[in-house]
Amino acid sequence: MAVLARMGIVRVGAIELLFLFAPLVIVPLGMELGRGMGGTGRLEELARRLQPVGAGMVVVAMCLPPGRRAGLAAAGWMVVCGLMAGSGVVGLVRSSLTRSSLTRSSWRDADRSVRATLALAQMDLGVGGAWLVASRLGMRPMGIQEPIGLLTAVHFHFAGFATAMIAAATLQFVERRGVSGLSQSWLKPVVLLVAGMPVVVAAGFVISPVVKMAAAILFSTSVAALAIAVRAYGRKAEDATARILLQVAAGAVFAGMVLSASYAVADYAGSEVLTIPQMARTHGILNAVAFCLAGLLGWLVEKSGGQLTVISAQ
Predict the structure, then answer these.
(1) What distances in angstroms separate CA 28 from CA 52, 88, 132, one per listed residue?
(2) Which of 230, 226, 220, 222 is nearest to 256 (CA)?
(3) Which end of the chain is more exposed for a tag (fewer CB within 10 A), N or C?
(4) Taking the CB of residue 89, how many other CB atoms lie within 10 A of it?
(5) What is the pTM of this model?
(6) SS3 readout for 266-306
(7) How many CB atoms lie within 10 A of CB 178?
């Protein structure tokens, strides 16, 4: 798609290409990581089966001009996102009503904080899918103009879903490796903050500029704290490839969050030092490729290595 866009065969911009990286690469990796962390429910398994079809339809949606046909094609991806969001709601309800020790499902081995983070990550996809459909239909919810609508869909796929999945994997690694309680005590609230803040950041665009700036800075700070955790605990990974990937992810997201916080302050002050196109080419690529891709792959490689070790021992 990037090559075709460069050749002028398809008319898609940098933000559209950035979004396409989510359904084609990031979300399937996140689904696989989630399956290894907390088990797969029926809704999530159905979403996994439909993901290739939904991703194909969103490619078609991006190639069409905004309107009814583009919105209908984007609805195919919304189905996948809706199923994931439904799985997240079920997970939250199950977690709140049933103690881990009494749960009969495959979720019983995961900590409550990890399960809650996984559920919030899945629910973020539902919000992101809805904004994608609105963007491709040419709608302007609450008067929000493009490219903010599409950027909101990008936000919930990367800063929401992918970042929360990496945070949950980091916390689960710390717990299962028996790291000291002090480490867990500060990491748990950071992980939950990372998972919950994307909604607050998006709401800030509607509520007020002050809320938008404060939420963006708080979210950037929490993700920077997560980067410190990924860097520290990623060094303890057993797989050498996983260690390299996690160190790359930690460094990239820290730089990306510095840019994000700087943009929030500049935007509030009315400065054009950092523009949306510049953020898409810098912060967007750092977050999508260097952090989300490397982080998800790092924990997937580590978990695969651990599973192989167990199988060999048996």
Answers:
(1) 9, 16, 18
(2) 220
(3) C
(4) 14
(5) 0.85
(6) HHHHCCCCCCHHHHHHHHHHHHHHHHHHHHHHHHHHHHHHH
(7) 8
